[in-house]
Design goal:
The chain has 2 helices and no strands. With about 90 residues, it is mainly alpha-helical. It has one domain. The radius of gyration is 32 Å and the shape is elongated.
């Protein structure tokens, strides 16, 4: 049976396939606000756990003191050049 041959009651309009949800603007804004708060809390906890895990694994690596000595040398060099420059 072709589309044009279907009885009128069997034809479905395109708009009938979608459900319209009517909410007040106040309710929508409140729900979006709560969703934003929940998302922010999740990001904070997730980032905290990720940073703690990275810090834990980096503390177990042995080459970190080498990087620390290199940073100290750079900071001493900057301090020496800064005092020479200010004179």
């Amino acid at each position: 049976m072709l589309e044009s041959e279907k009885p009128e009651e069997e034809k479905v309009k395109a708009g009938d396939n979608f459900l319209k949800i009517y909410r007040s603007r106040k309710e929508m804004m409140f729900n979006n606000f709560l969703g934003g708060i929940a998302w922010s809390i999740g990001v904070i906890f997730g980032a905290g756990i990720l940073i703690a895990a990275i810090g834990f694994f980096v503390s177990k690596v042995d080459f970190i003191p080498i990087i620390g000595n290199w940073v100290v040398q750079i900071s001493e060099f900057v301090k020496q050049n800064q005092t020479n420059h200010l004179r």
